[in-house]
Structures are given as C-alpha cells and as structure tokens.
Please model this.
Amino acid sequence: MKRILTSLWFIASLLAPLTYLSAQAANWKEVQIPPLRAFHPQQPKRIELSNGMVIFLQEDHELPLIDGSARIRGGSVNEPANKVGLVDIYSEVWRTGGTKSQTGDQLDDFLEVRAAKVETGGGPDSTTISFSCLKGDLDDVFKAFVDVLENPEFREDKIDIAKKGQEDSISRRNDEVSDIAHREATKLAYGADNPYARVAEYATVDAVTRQDLIDWHAKYVHPNNIILGITGDFESAAMEARLRAAFESWPKGESFPPFPKDLPYHPAAPGYYLIPKEDVNQSNIRMVALGTTRDNPDYYAISVFNEASAADFRLASLTTSAPGLVWPMAWAEASAPISAIPEFCRSPWERKVRLRSNRSRPSIKISIISRQSPSARMTSGARRMRS
Amino acid sequence: MKRSILKGALSLLLLSAVALAQDLASFEKRVTVKKLPNGLTLIICERPEAPVFSFFTMVDAGSTQDPQGATGLAHMFEHMAFKGTNKIGTTNYPAERLALEKVEAAYAAYIRERDKRVGQDPAKLKQLEKDWQDAMGVAQKYVVPNEFGKIVEQNGGEDMNAFTNYDETAYHYSFPENRLELWAYLESERFLHPVMREFYKERNVVIEERRMRTDSVPFGRLLEQFTEVAFTAHPYHRPTIGWMSDLNRFSATDAQKFFDTYYIPSNMVVAVAGDLKAAQALPILEKYFGRLPSRPHPDESPTQEPSQNSERRVILRDPSQPIYLEGYHRPDFLSKDDAVFDAISDLLSEGRTSRLYRALVRDKKIASFSEGFTGYPGVKYPHLFAFLAVPLPGHKPQEIGDAIHAEINRLKKEDISDDELKMIKTRSKANLLRGLADNQGLATQLATYQTRYGDWRELFRSVDRIEAVTKADIRRVSNEVFVDSNRSIGIIENAHGNGAPPGGEPGNAAADPGGAQ
Model:
C-alpha cells in the first residue's frame, strides 16, 4: 500500500511537469512566471571593538577560501596640491615596501608560494588593504596582513619604482583620446584645482618623500578610521577571537569626517570645449555638469533617475539618425561622493553627462576631442551657450 | 627547521589536492549534461546560493570562419542576435519580411554599381543608393527598437552582453530563478528565428567600434598590424572586427548565410548555473532548445599556417609612447605541451615574484609592466606565445627586447627552481578554486571546456596537467619554440622621439580649457 502510494506520488510528480510542459509558449508574453523563491540572505555579523574599529564577518563555506578587506578613510582628495600622486605612491609602496621585519620581496615569496595575496590600494576618498588565501593558510597570511597594516617600512627602492610608474603614466596620458576626454571633462566640471579633478605632474610626484608616506600612515591608519570585512570558510566565533586578539589593544587615533569640507569648486563656463587630435578618426564627446554628494537625501532618487535616463539614452541612440551617435554606455561612479550620480556616457563613443540637481538652471559643458577643427556651427553654438 | 617547512609544504599540497578532489566529486553531483537529438549540448550546474542563475551560450564559430571578403561577419551577426525575432521587435512581421527582402535587393543593386571598376554611372549610383535608403526607411517603420533587450531588462536581466573572438562567439546574462522558462524561450527563439533588421544601421555601429578600438588607439593599431604579420596564411591574420572595406560591403544576406552555416545545434553548448534543479530545468531546456533544427556540420579546414623561417618586424611611428610586443608560434590547445606553455606563462608573468617583473621592472628598472602570455589570438588553431612590455620613459624598445631575450635564454639553459615549480602548481589549484565562486564564471568555464574538450571535467583535469609539468619540459619547450626565426616583433616608436615630454597638443589645450575653441 505504502509502495503504491509512493508510486502514485511519483507518477503525479512526473505528470505535473508534463502538463506544465505541454503549454509551450508561442510568444514571450505567454511564458508563465512563477513567484520568486523567498530569499533571506544571511546578514554579516557586525562587531565594534572598544577602539572604534568596525568589523563585518560573513561566513561562506562553499569553497575553502578566506578573503578580507579593510577600508581606511582618507584618500587623494586629502593630499596636498603640491604632492598630487602621494596616495598613489603610498598605496603601492605600503605593500611593496615591506614591513619592519621583512622586505616586500620576502613577502612576495612568502605569499606566492601559498597562492595567497596581501595587497594595498588607494582612491580619492579611502585606501584599502586586503588579503586572500586558502583556509589552511589563514594563520600565515593573516600574520602578514596585520604586519603590513601596522608596520609598513616604505623602503626607498620601492618608492623609486612607484615614482617611475607614475612618471610613465604621465608620459602616456595623451596617447588615447578617451583618457584625454575623461581628464579634461572632469577638470571642466569641477575646476582644475578641485581634488577630484587634479592630476599628478612630474613635479608633484618628485616632491613626494618617504617621510610623507610615513606621516600619511601615522595620520590615517587608526582602528577608529577602519572598517574591516572578512568573508569565507571560517567559524565566526573563532575569527572574532582572532581579530580581538590582533586589534583590541590598538590605541585610538584621530578620526576624520566622512565628507571632506571646503573643497574648491570652479566649474568652467557652459560651452563647447574642443581639443584637436590628429591621429584619430573618431570624436569623443562628454557632457559634464556638477552633481551631488552622497549625503544628499535625494541620493537614491537621483540614482534611480540616472538608471532610467541611461536607459532612455540607450533607446534614443537606437532611433537617432545622427551617424555615429550609437552604442552608449552608462555607469555611475560610486567611489567619488561628489561625482554625481546622474552620469551617462555616450558618444560617438563616450559622452558623460553630469546634471546638477541642486540648481534650478541646469548648466552643461561639453568637451569634444576631434580630429577636425571646430566648425562654424559649433563655434556659434558655443557662443550662444556662453551668452 | 627545514624538515618542518617541507612538512608544511607537503600538507599544503595534500590539502589543496583533497579540496580539489572534493570539488570535482561535488560538481559531478551538481552538474548534468545532456546532448539533444539535434546535436546541441546542455549543461546545468546546481548552485542554490541565491535565487538567480546565469547562462553562457557558446557557439563554436568565430572570426576564423568569416568568409573571404567578408571579415567582421561573425562579429556582425553577434550584434544582430540582439535585434529580436519574428515575434520580438516587430509590429508586423509578414510585412516587415517583404520590406527587408526589398532592402536586400536594393542593396545588392547598389553594391553592384558601386563596385564596378569600369563604366560606373554616377547618376545611376546615386539613384540606387537612394532606392536602398528608401527601402530601409520602409522596413524601419515595422521596427520596435531594442524590444529584445527591453524584455530582458524589465525581467531583471543583468550583464547582458556577448563577445566574438577568433575561435568562438558567446552570449550571456543573469536572471531571477523564476524566469528560467522565459530565458529558455528567449535564448532559443533568438537562434530559431533571427531577423536581420536594422542591419545597415547596426553595421555603422560596428564601423564605429572599429574606429574606437583599432583606428583611434595606438595599441589597437599596433596589434592589428602585428597579428597580420605574424600569421600569413591562417585566418588568424585577419582582424575579428573586420577590414573597413569588408564592413562597408557585406550584406544582411551574408549574415543570414553565416548564421545558417555555423549556428547549428552541434556547434552550440548552453550552460546554466545557479538556483535551479536539473530534474525540473532540463525538461524546460529540452523543450525549447530541442526546437532548433539540426543541420549538417560545415566543412572547416582553414589554411594551415606554414612554419616561420625568418624574423618579422612591424614598427609603428606614432604620436604615442613606445610599446614592445613579440610572439612565437606554438601548436594549438590540444598539444601535449599545452600545460607547459601555461606553466611558462605563470612563471614569467604572475605577480611580483614573476621573472619578467623582477628582471624588467624591479631590477633593470626599464619597464613599468611586462608579461608573457599564451593563447594569442586564439587557442583552437596553432597560435602565439607572446611577450608584452611597456618601456619606462627614456628606454628604447630594443632594451626591452634584449631583456626579454635574456629571460628566455635563462629558460632554455637553466632549470627553474623547486620553489618556482611549486608556486606554479599551487597557484593553478588556487586559481581554479577562485573561479568556481560565481554563477557567470561557472557557466562560462563549463561551456568553454565542454566546447573545446567535449567534457567539462577537463576544467578540473587542467590542474592535473599542470601538476605533471617537469623542469625538463619547460627547458625542452622553450628551446623548441623561442627561436629567433620563429619570432614576430611589433613596436610603437614615438614619432617625436622616445621620452618626449608630455603635454603635446591635447595637453596644451587641456591646460587652458577656457581657451579651447
């Protein structure tokens, strides 16, 4: 009896999908869409140490790997104008320059033989240090991670390599039109002296010293200025104990505001700005305007607007008859709080639009890089926009 | 002390070996493969982490299959696969079909006149071009622009994209798990009833893509010239994006013919990974993908590249900073030495312990970046093992070439160290693991290995092949392949002399944007 019931259930379960299957859709609108499975993702465990360090732990036992990343407030926006490039150099030499007990090269050998990584990086608003390892190597790799976090040595030979890399980038920055367009459009939107727009020069790179890197680290790398996240194949209780042992006794330091205040904004006058380049057969157009900051209460509304407008741009481009105004790309820059979210990119190949949300009258600047000299129509257009 | 290090290393190797064995075993349970009667292969990988899935449709045809005189056609079809079907993207398909036939007739008449070398009639040409434009205007009236993409996006599709390379064409995006049937409908329908609508408009998009990636970028220009010189006979010498004259010539009819020839079920593998159960998903996939009609496999035997017997060199004098590139011919991916090339690439390029980083960047301080890599421009046919380096200001490409050749000579003359070999092998295991952690990556790898080797398990066996590589293999292969007469070199030299100060014309305009016109 039980067996018959089981068989019946089995047959029924077979029949169910068959019935379902017989209704093969002839049109996409006829395809049945069942309700989405409920999803309650596991929330990370939040720990705040007595010294202010914030930690998030997320267990994930799918693969025998562990990854961690610490983010530290303070970035290139905070570097002095005569030392632009400091944070780029710092965030490379932080790792390559080794620690007090081992050189960067020794660290490389130690980690690579374990297929593990400890890496550092930097951006406009923060710097980061991260690690990645097989779970069996956690003891070794975590030790190296903490050593780099707390005891970097910034050896001169690696500062030299980092500076040469910076100089190489400066020498190559006019090789590709999209790089030029990005750099110059950003300067137009913010003003060339704004920290989000300024770029490293040979002189500013040359001015950076080892003492600057040491001072930067001493100023910013404190537990109350750090958020650390770890994910992977570990038990949270053991990991928490490990982190408390490593960081609980670390003394507090100066803390920094989430948004830098008093940044200079000198946007260029609305108009067309043209940069001729002879070795290309395509123009690169960006439309830019100042945007908003992340603490704007309308930040998410603006984000949704940005997505929707980007989609509209895409559709518009498909129907436009203007040759070459095709294939738009859109994205939002999440790392820079001032870079507004309304930001599109479309072109011939690229056009960025930044809409000013906090002004009643939108102002738009366009920079164009083209192999052609500006036509009379464009020049008059530029005058019109300026008047 | 020494003993404990050895023991540590041993336990590490054991650990990763065990972890991998577990993974293959766990994947055996989670992966279902089904070859349909029409020849199409389906792969389902259960990974119920979150209620989403990703897919990867791999078509075993790429720009190598472009017909003579129609380079860029494989890539062009990839763009057309987003234009909809006879039910999606149209207001009235029967009428649109007739209108599209007229576009093709008008285009053929226009091209016949345009390409006449003798006796071309300018007035007639102008009229024929107008007829073609007018016919496109009529067909356009039936188009619902971008409806295919809109359906995908409105249903929560993410990362919808595709690519074409020399070996293959692939399509992918991610969806919520309850859209599995909708996806199966859309993805099969797109290859069951593709419509070549807005073809010539989209061709202009592709032409702009060529200008963006190749014509307007110094490295793009170098790569195209370099590849053309390195391969003389095999279709690898042609650009995937296509030559400009071909882009301005091929037709929607050509694209449809390419589709009919190469988008056959036996050339296709569709892999799905995510929150789905094979028992329920497979019948749905079979139902929709089973509709594709089976067709005979095309006769494919591209001209083989003859062995190279003299060094070749391309020098671009550009308003750009210098770049150095060189490549050596090697056998295809089925070669017994394939893993040896992978090991050499890892040794030379992976991380700051790599030989090229240490020699050129750290010690000699002549480059900002340097690597050796295999698989250029494809893997399916004999291809190149290549070296790329970016010289620091003031250093000539020749210095870079000499430094790379010194590293190659070391490979030929000395065995690599035990630590280096161990590093390569451990890294290959860890890299495999790191690639298994997301749906899109999984679908991509499973489809790729299934297509290339006929078995997705080769993904895991690739680690065994690296494990079997010996020091002697590395010396032997280096001596066989890294030979002067087997070398092609591509160099960008700065037209204004190397190490020119930055801030040329664009920089100056940049320094004073208010002064730009």
